[in-house]
Automatic annotation (TrEMBL):
Pathway: Amino-acid biosynthesis; L-tryptophan biosynthesis; L-tryptophan from chorismate: step 5/5
Alphabetized UniProt keyword annotations: Amino-acid biosynthesis, Aromatic amino acid biosynthesis, Lyase, Pyridoxal phosphate, Tryptophan biosynthesis
SUPFAM superfamilies (alphabetical): Tryptophan synthase beta subunit-like PLP-dependent enzymes (SSF53686)
Protein name from the UniProt record: Tryptophan synthase
A family per Pfam: PALP
Known EC number: 4.2.1.20
Region annotation Disordered: where it falls in the sequence: 36-58
Cofactor(s) essential for the protein: pyridoxal 5'-phosphate
Gene: LOC104778679
């Protein structure tokens, strides 16, 4: 495992063991030099369906600079030897953003394979539930769900996995390696690799596999090797380290497919761009449904691909509130949570600077959430920037609140949301009573909860109405 010591101006230096890196995602680096018209990372050049109009506003909060910095966050904290590889990946990515053939292939796959666009569903009974609680005379705020749970493989993770698998193929890699916590990114990666005919190895912590039984069975059905990571805590953090180790040992043939908006530049921006199709569709659907913007966007917050996928399109619309909900686990005082923004500090981890859960010595603290996919000890740099600039609002929901929200949606709408998603839904209890009549609230329904049924049953919870 490579590590490096980096002095960050004005920040305590975390111990070397925490300077773990996710290295370049490039395998055999393309030596072909395309003419790149440096539309670098602008939203205009994002992959999107032709049918999805985007309204990009230049904003101080948008996009990050060419070095992948969002204010003081982000960057590329990797050894010198990897810088050129990351640069090559960045060039390839920028080229593909405006490459017509790639965009067409991606758009077709998102439509015919993933099932996009996903519906923007008016949750009528949930809306009615909150209206009755508030005893409003008018209609109360309206709640809509962006149904990423209806995507192929059951979550938004497939948007990014598919696009990156296509990049892996273009770069001449024969194998993809990934790490997964809740399993959704692993399943999506396995599916994308099957479709594109790439070998796939997914690392998953042994503890997580026990919790996400349904997904590990799915892996066994596909042509994917699953590696159970038994070391240390057997969670996502350990799976990530093992996957990186595997990748570094097989750089020539293997592509490391990152599932969220962390890591060194250009990884966070690349994942965000591939997920931002969610927000672009949402804008168009909102326009069709009520002829304007939503008032509040709500998403659960692990490391941030769910949140940025929905938020990014609206970052420049400052009248749209962007609300992220972190996992408070057993409570913020318990020490067992994943509430990085609520109690974390700035440091460097996995190749970029961001808020992290760390102790007084700068050591990474083990995160906890009943939503296993939220158990990451950091957030993406763009999320940290949204917090620091005040553009994003960030709150927390406990395990218990998330479970209750999961049951409520199941009972009222017949939709079992993932326990990760349920954190966003839990926050509606606090949010809805504060909103005006008729306000439009959109929740990113990031995944379905089939994978969590064992966890819920073990807690004695049943779903009589589903
Ligand atoms: C359904 C679902 N929603 C949300 C997340 C959190 O992902 P992120 O931290 O990238 O937003 C996960 C992670 O596995 C997930 O499976």
């Amino acid at each position: 495992m490579l590590s490096t010591k980096i002095q960050v101006r004005g920040q305590p230096l975390p111990p070397a063991r925490n300077h773990r890196m996710i290295h370049s995602v490039v395998c055999r680096v393309s030596t072909k030099r395309h003419h790149r018209e440096s539309s670098v990372l602008s939203s205009e050049s994002c992959p999107s369906s032709d049918s999805v109009p985007t309204k990009t506003r230049k904003s101080q909060f948008c996009s990050g600079n060419v070095d992948g910095k969002f204010g003081r966050f982000g960057g590329k904290f990797v050894p010198e030897t990897l810088i050129s590889r990351l640069k090559d990946l960045e060039e390839e990515f920028n080229f593909l953003l405006s490459d017509h053939k790639f965009q067409e292939e991606l758009t077709t796959a998102l439509r015919d394979y993933v099932g996009r666009e996903t519906p923007l569903y008016f949750a009528g009974r949930l809306t009615e539930h909150y209206k009755n609680i508030a005893r409003t005379i008018g209609g109360g705020p309206e709640i809509y769900l962006k149904r990423e749970d209806l995507s192929h493989c059951g979550s938004h993770k497939i948007n990014n996995a598919l696009a990156q698998a296509m990049i892996a193929r273009r770069l001449g890699c024969s194998r993809v390696v990934a790490a997964t916590g809740a399993g959704q990114h692993g399943v999506a990666t396995a599916a994308a690799c099957a479709k594109i005919s790439l070998g796939c190895t997914v690392y998953m912590g042994a503890t997580d596999i026990e919790k996400q039984l349904v997904l590990s069975i799915k892996y066994n059905d596909s042509n994917t090797r699953i590696k159970h990571v038994k070391s240390v805590e057997g969670t996502f953090k350990d799976a990530s380290s093992e996957a990186i180790r595997h990748w570094v040992e097989n750089l020539d043939s293997t592509y490391f497919l990152l599932g969220t908006v962390v890591g060194p530049h250009p990884c966070p921006i690349m994942v965000r761009e591939f997920q931002s199709v969610i927000g672009k569709e949402t804008r168009r659907q909102a326009n069709q449904l009520w002829g304007g913007n939503p008032d509040v966007l709500v998403a659960c917050l692990g490391s941030g691909s769910t949140a940025l996928g929905l938020f990014h399109e609206f970052v420049g619309d400052e009248d749209v509130r962007l609300v992220g909900v972190e996992a408070a686990g057993l409570g913020l005082d318990s020490g067992k949570h994943s509430a990085t923004l609520a109690v974390g500090h700035v440091g460097v981890y996995h190749g970029s600077m961001s808020y992290l859960l760390q102790d007084d010595q700068g050591q990474i603290v083990k995160p906890h959430s009943v939503g296993v996919g939220l158990e990451y000890p950091g957030v993406g740099p763009e999320i940290s920037f949204l917090k620091e600039t005040g553009r994003g609002e960030f709150y927390t929901a406990t395990d218990q609140e998330a479970i209750q929200a999961c049951m409520l949606l199941s009972r009222l709408e017949g939709i079992i949301p993932a326990l990760e998603t349920s954190h966003a839904l839990a926050f509606l209890d606090k949010l809805i009573p504060t909103l005006r009549d008729g306000a439009k609230v959109i929740v990113n329904c990031s995944g379905r909860g089939d994978k969590d049924l064992d966890t819920l049953i073990q807690r004695g919870i049943s779903f009589p109405n589903c």
